[in-house]
Amino acid sequence: PIATSETFKLPFSLQAKMSRPVQARRLEGVDKNIWVEFVKLAATYSKVNLGQGFPDFPPPDFLKEAFVRALSGENHMLHQYTRAFGHPPLVKILAQFFGKLLGRDLDPMTNVMVTVGAYQALFCCFQAFIEEGDEVIIIEPFFDCYESMTKMAGGTPVFVPLRPKTPKDGKLMSSEDWKLDPAELASKFSERTKAIVLNSPNNPLGKVFSRGELELIADLCVKHDVLCISDEVYEWLVYDGKEHIRIASLPGMWDRTVIIGSAGKTFSATGWKVGWTMGPNRLLQHLRNVHQNSVYHCATIAQEAVAQGFQRELELYGKADSYFIQLPRELQQKRDWLVQSLDAVGMKPIIPEGTYFLVADISKFKSDIPDVPDSDEPYDSRFAKWMVKNKGLAAIPLSAFYSGAHKSIYNHFIRFCFAKEEATLKAANDILQKWKQEKTSP
Ligand code: PMP
């Protein structure tokens, strides 16, 4: 505004108010975040929270003890900065541990980088590789930030859904029944495709991609010279003897894949926010560039403790005492409890092959919460909000894991997290049983 005799009399602080738009264009369309909304709802209303993905049981003692030792031990340098791209003991043990699994020598300094959780690892990938005009293939349903991170980097997400096939014999569906259509997947690749995001085991379905499915993806990546951002944060959480296959180990894939992992999921300590990336130096050098110009560094003590956790796991690898053997065994039991609870009340579970999560079909509960035709909000979202407010049970609508165009198709499922104490799962069972009785009693 032009200064007048009036404005001259205003205090300086009022005159200085900004009127120009401040938001950078890259933030357009990424302002809504499902977690902010549903975490708040759960905090306000839930008696039993099976929404956001975190365990309510403690991390293993050996990990907590390692943290305490790092915190209160003689080496006070652990309270100071460490190497920007990863505390040396952590990158060394990660290189040794995963080098064995991948069957290749990993250089801790160039093939591994530590990040603030897997979330920052993802952010580094999108910022480092994607630019205006690039397309990124995202398999639906997907961990929601893949879409917003693609857009923030200036890229265009291209979605390809897993197609469910109902088993004929009346059995419960499994996450295995959700499959890619090979022709549809192939049709999404073009000269504009820069990367595909793979998340196996997959959040939210719990799908563990088979070797055949990974080979299909790998062949297309090689054919079209496309990068693979492979989010493997649930790599240890696979059930029923299933195998987690690392796509980077398939022919032609190491050179074009960034592997992403998380100590949060690996050691049941999501709040520590220690994650990592692994891959060829040719790719990781660009991730280091983003990291050094943004976060620069992750908490030293947490990195030291995670390093010790991996040291222990290296010594126990494949043995009964290994946490990577024990945790999935415990979680499989928890999965089965929740499957039974949901099945007993008619909220049909899709049995997950991996992860913390299971998705359930709420179609039979539709009479409780009437549909609102022409509502902008998907049905499952309104259902999940109603459920937490009226029943005290928090879950996440599956439509949150779909692109705008597909939300209305996949709008009758909700996702539960079963990485919870037995008592929590029992309390969830009580709520469901009571709800069913209320439904059936006249
Ligand atoms: N990827 C997937 C598929 C996830 O589910 C999560 C956490 N919910 C992350 C990445 C982020 O992991 P972190 O907590 O280590 O940042």
Summarize the structure.
The protein has 442 residues and is an alpha/beta fold. The chain folds into two domains: 31-59 and 322-440, Aspartate Aminotransferase, domain 1; 61-316, Type I PLP-dependent aspartate aminotransferase-like (Major domain) (Aspartate Aminotransferase, domain 2, 3-Layer(aba) Sandwich). Helix content is 40%, strand content 14%.
Which percent bin holds the helix content?
40-55%
> Tell me, what is the CATH class of the largest domain?
Alpha Beta
For the biggest sheet, the summary is:
7 strands, mixed
What gap, in angstroms, lies between the N and C termini?
68 Å
- Please state the CA-atom Rg, rounded to the nearest Å: 23 Å
Q: What is the name of the CATH superfamily of the largest domain? A: Type I PLP-dependent aspartate aminotransferase-like (Major domain)
What is the fold named in CATH at topology level of the largest domain? Aspartate Aminotransferase, domain 2
- Content of β-strand: 5-15%
Oligomer type: single chain
How would you portray this structure in words?
With about 450 residues, the chain is of the alpha/beta class. Helix content is about 40%, strand content about 15%. The protein contains 15 helices and 15 strands. Strand 7, helix 9 (about 210-225) and strand 8 (about 225-230) form a beta-alpha-beta unit. Helix 3 packs parallel to helix 14, helix 5 packs parallel to helix 12 (about 300-315) and helix 13 (about 325-345) packs parallel to helix 15 (about 420-440). The termini are far apart. 4'-deoxy-4'-aminopyridoxal-5'-phosphate binds next to helix 6.
